[in-house]
Design goal:
By secondary structure, this protein is an alpha/beta fold. The protein has helices spanning 48-58, 85-98, 112-124, 142-158, 161-168, 174-188, 190-193, 200-209, 224-233, 237-243, 263-280; strands at 2-10, 13-21, 30-35, 63-67, 104-110, 129-135, 214-220, 248-253. It has an 8-stranded mixed β-sheet, with helices on both faces. Mean pLDDT is 87; it is low at 190-197.
């Protein structure tokens, strides 16, 4: 494989990306655009996106990882995942312009980049998108965070003998107990807070509902963000229907953390991602 710098315009700003592609053989007609979640740049945690793009390229898939406006080497005003539609569109256009043999692309995103990918297809219905690979999508709200803490942290603590001994000895202060109470109140209000049909979480669901391409959803077992996604989707009939659609494959990595810092977890995610793209090529 080989790598080259790709600079392209996005609403008057020059974005910077790195294109990884095979040296020999005919490249696949389906490429990959790696959308980087914030705040980080195109290399990713422990060079995750660099290694991912190279993995695709070594197997005949052209991949672009880039800095959207205000991140890494790309100038522009600060923005978050809610405001990167133009950046994603520019990256797709730049990849196809640089390598005309690439007809369609798969969007690959971790955390709020996965959310950004769903928001992009919801707002654009871009026919160039062949598939989505979503790792630990971000759906955080005050209510869902509270529910996740109550279920996956406080419930575990309440079953520990050391917690009760500490409580009896006065080691658990009023602040900790009041925090638990506040989380319980927020958790009970989670369904009410989800009523806004135009919240970004609902837009994500709408994006997934209207997308007919292949979707790979990877959830890490040792990750609060993934647990929040599960807690958000579990009581929702809409999300349950979406997660059971035939075009969506869900894979749970039981011991993986948020960024797949263990080599074995990263390798498995890379293999799953490659097979998803190859099936579309």
């Amino acid at each position: 494989m080989k790598e080259s710098t790709l600079s392209f315009d996005c609403q008057g700003e020059r974005l910077v990306g790195i294109l990884a592609e095979p040296v020999t053989g005919e490249p696949a007609e389906v490429g990959v655009v790696i959308v980087v979640g914030g705040p980080q740049y195109r290399a990713g945690s422990h060079r995750q996106f660099t290694l991912l793009a190279r993995h695709f390229a070594a197997h005949g898939i052209t991949a672009l990882r880039f800095d959207y406006r205000s991140m890494g080497d790309s100038p522009g005003e600060a923005r978050d995942f809610l405001g990167v539609d133009a950046d994603i569109a520019a990256a797709i256009g730049a990849l196809r312009a640089a390598r005309p043999g690439v007809k369609r692309v798969v969007l690959w995103g971790l955390c709020d980049a996965a959310s950004a990918a769903l928001l992009y297809v919801e707002s654009t219905n871009d026919p160039r998108i062949a598939g989505l690979i979503l790792l630990n999508p971000w759906v955080r709200s005050a209510a869902t965070l509270a529910r996740t803490h109550v279920k996956h942290y406080y419930w575990q603590r309440l079953r520990e003998r050391e917690f009760w001994l500490k409580l009896l000895r006065g080691g658990v202060g009023r602040t900790a107990l009041s925090t638990l109470g506040a989380n319980l109140r927020l958790a009970r209000g989670a369904h009410e807070s989800a009523a806004d049909s135009r919240s970004f979480q609902h837009r994500m669901a709408d994006g997934l509902s209207g997308f007919s391409g292949a979707v790979l959803l990877i959830l890490s077992g040792d990750d609060l963000t993934a647990k929040e996604f599960f807690e958000h989707a579990l009581p929702s009939q809409v999300w349950q229907k979406l997660l059971s659609r035939p075009n969506l494959r869900r894979v749970d990595l039981e011991h993986a953390d948020h960024t797949l810092s263990r080599t074995s977890d990263q390798d498995l995610a890379f293999t799953l991602s490659l097979s998803t793209v190859q099936a579309l090529a």
